[in-house]
Amino acid sequence: MDSITQAALGGAIGGAVLGRRLGRKAVLIGAALGTLPDLDVILDYGDAIANVTEHRGFSHSLFVLTGLATLLALLARRFAPARDIPLSRWWLFCGLILMTHPLLDALTTYGTQIWWPLDVRPAAYPIVFIIDPLYTLPLLVGIGVAMATGNGLRAPRAGLALATAYLVFAFGAKLLVEHRIEPVLAAQGLAEAPRLVQPTPFNTLLWRVTVVDGVDQHETLVGVFDGDSTPQLETFSRGAEREAVALQSEKGQRLDWFAGPFLRYESASIDGQETLVATDLRLGFPGFYPFSFTLATREADEWQPLMVTQQLEGPSRGNREALARLGKRILAPTPLLCTSDFVPRQWLISRPSQC
Question: Residue 59 needs a FRET pair 20 to 30 A away by CA distance; which of 184, 221, 308, 332 works?
Fold first, then answer.
């Protein structure tokens, strides 16, 4: 989630745990601790793929954060002026604030390495978009009231309760969408294909379903208010014939570990040179993918892996037409919104007749 949300969550938890004893200080300290894991963004690994795949890495590990929470609790118990707060309470304060940060991140699409340094794929069970005002607002109101009144306990707890209830709703909405898409995928022989079900930007009422079937990528939108409307799949090529070349390089293997199989490969002319580009299909929206990386260049009819990869500039994030159409689609299945409306036609294989 975004840093404002993480600070608000940390402040709310701080108030809920030690607000009665520390008042506003519990909220302020909690907000500061809540953003601590995201300081890894200042690290530059000298490579675009490394920077993306190492983010939410060691600093989001539950193992690392457990140790850090223990250390901070010991220091607080030893040096904090509030001598009557027991060590167990300090540990609960630090532990909950630090460890809820990666757990919340794991409820988004990006992928969070909560089990670092174990060699497992990043955890991601997306039920909220990386920015969701309906989750953040109750937390902000709660800590705002606490700062204004000096009562650091009651309002943060209320904010936490409302925000948590919203996550429960989002989880239920995802289950509903998965239930609606199951028969459609089964009818097309895609029941066992890798799929990703995630909310569209800034809401939990309209969901994007991405399915990868070997060389193809299927997309559809499913809304909570769609009723008996049958989801319609659109099919795109993901350039899988170039995947073998990408996996020959360490950078390509790292990206596959991070996002595979939800990757598209294409050959593009960059600075007058034929370049292999990989795009993460999970993040963003069809036609608006923010993460594309150079992997190799063709020299004398052979692909040569790049020693240092670069992230290409993505399409404008401020496409008002796309956001406006998504907003209209949230409340009704018609008129049909087709993701292919925003994707270059050379990638399109098939789409419903209604599009």
Answer: 308
Confidence (pTM): 0.94
Q: Provide the Cα torsion 196, 208, 203, 142; round to 10°.
A: 0
Question: Would you kindly state where each structural domain of the chain is located, as residue ranges?
Answer: 3-171, 188-355
Dump pLDDT digits (tens) for 253-289. Answer: 999 999 989 999 999 999 889 999 999 999 988 888 9
Residue 207's identity, in one-letter code, is W
Using CA atoms, how far apart are residues 95 and 67, in angstroms rounded to an integer? 9
Cβ-Cβ contacts under 8 Å for 72 (sequence gap 6 or more): 33, 90, 94
Q: Which residue has the tokens 């969550």?
A: 9
Q: Which token pair is 238?
A: 């993901």
Which tokens belong to 14?
């701080």
3-state helix, strand, coil in the chain (%, to 5): 50, 15, 35
